[in-house]
Fold:
Amino acid sequence: MVDVLNNVIYGFGVALQPLHLMYCFFGVLIGTLVGVLPGLGPAAAIALLLPTTFKFTPVAATIMLAGIYYGAMYGGSTTSILVNIPGEAASVVTCLDGYQMARKGRAGPALGIAAFGSFIAGTIAVIALTFVGPVLADLALAFGPPEYFSLMIVGIMVLTYLSGGSMIKALMMAGIGVMLSGVGMDTISGQYRFTFDLPSLLDGVGVVPVAMGLFGISEVLLNLETEMKRDILATKVKNIFPSLKDWSLSIWSIIRGSILGFFLGIIPGGGAVIASFASYAIEKKMSKHPEEFGKGAIQGVAGPEAANNAGAGGSFIPLLTLGIPANPVMAILLGALMIHGLQPGPLLMNDVPDLFWGTIVSMYIGNGMLLVLNLPLIPLWIKVLKVPYYLLYPLILLFCLIGAYSLENNSDHMLIMLIFGILGFLMKKFSYDGAPMILALVLGQKLETSLRRSLIMSHGDFSTFITRPISLAFLIIALALLIIPIITQRRKLSQLEEG
Amino acid sequence: MGRSDIISGAFWFAISAFSGYLSYDLGLGVLRQPGPGFFFFWTSIVTAVLSLTVIVRGFKMEAEKVAAEPVIRIANVLKIVLVLAALFCYAMLVEQIGFIILTFLLFVFLLSVIEKKSWTAAISIGLVVTVLAYLLFETALQSQLPKGLLEFLRF
Structure:
């Protein structure tokens, strides 16, 4: 306990340095902007702003990139409530009741409770992160290659299980991501693989150009198909501070959403999106008036908004303590840390305490900044929403191009990004999800190394994965995630046949 | 989804088969000492089986359908193709022509040709964006963007 407090005080010392405060501010500001703008999610934003952080210190870069992520969670609610278009995926649920509240002239309290709920949840998540992080990092020190292999399999399985469409397709995308991760040098034998003698492939396929292509370029191409129409409510946003009645209705939703979101955020493959959906379902089930949900119930805004922010905070835990990203955004952040010469994992806390504790404490500060930023700046965000798409998309494209080039001052990365942009566009048309591919691309090399090391250690005996209890537990979870959809589908089929 | 699943499944099957062949070529090693191709060979096998499942499911769905549907629907194809062509040209020429000239040309092309805005608007927005992007990336963030034809100016 004393250790944790000492570390938090040390973290404040790092985060309160003027330069770090400035980067934290820029991060949350850009994040809110990204959250407000539909068609540009936090994954693409972090990917395309990553090269701008190359001149920063690793601590400053991580503080800013983390700020973009949780800032986007805040900003996403604004578009959901005012335009009925979610700024990013985690705010989809907020549209249901948030927009209805706005239509009834209660846009102010909806935006207010979203901001306060997000602040409370973000703070709860950061406090939990402070205590859970070190415990998990200690536990992770006992992990050997078999445990890491099984944990990463769980991560990929959770993401494919939660993936919107067909699980077979999601698994296939994870497989393709794993194969892509094999491009470049084999870390064990030193041999080059799948490079076709192309110099630009010698270092492997970068996560950042692939993510910018799959999430940034493909999104622009999809939006080019249709004219984006936005019906911004003409009503003036007033009474942003929720009334006592609003608070009494929402406070438990916020607390439940925070706890649920935090734990769903920790699970690899989970995160903010699933947390917001789960919170909405729980709030509706627990409400005395479930019929009001979808018609402007304030709990339907407070719960999911709290959950997605707590989920965003929670998802930092597996990244910072185990080196395993919980979702595509964390996958890109992992890539960013590696570019800055850091290896996230259980040793990060001891090796670079300023980064670990500085980033965590900057999130406390960032949450405060967001509260101050979000409420008075709502009129500005509404103005930003009115920027026509014909101006916005060339700017997004230019940022993607410059971002890809700046990675290594090499135009080949631009071409890789564009190829994955086309692939991402077609994947969406053919109902394939890009998220498992990105996660598998990041985890692929570690997955392979863990498997090969485990087999070398056990002299080729596969039972090493099931004789070690932690590894066995992970594999049981992975298997359950694979079997559950098959059972539920069979049940549905037999019910249909009986019907 | 029928036909689109058959086509996409076949595409991923081809990719998996090719990757499996390359992995096999790299050497699978033995279980005690897995080779560089071991993991990717088995991943390719799994992905190939999954893609075959998608193909079979596609055929089943196709058989149940009464009327044929297009494989995919893409609206504004010409606009998308032109934007992509512009982006590929940018990527391929940026090192020879330079960031400043190409960024300006890209904006003028996108705004005037694709979005049908007036030349005056396209040129002025192009100029403003190019200058701001230069100040942000080159001056503030010290990115080393290619100067190309303007190399001689040494700014």
User: Anything to note?
Assistant: The CA atoms of residues 13 and 48 of chain B lie 5 Å apart.
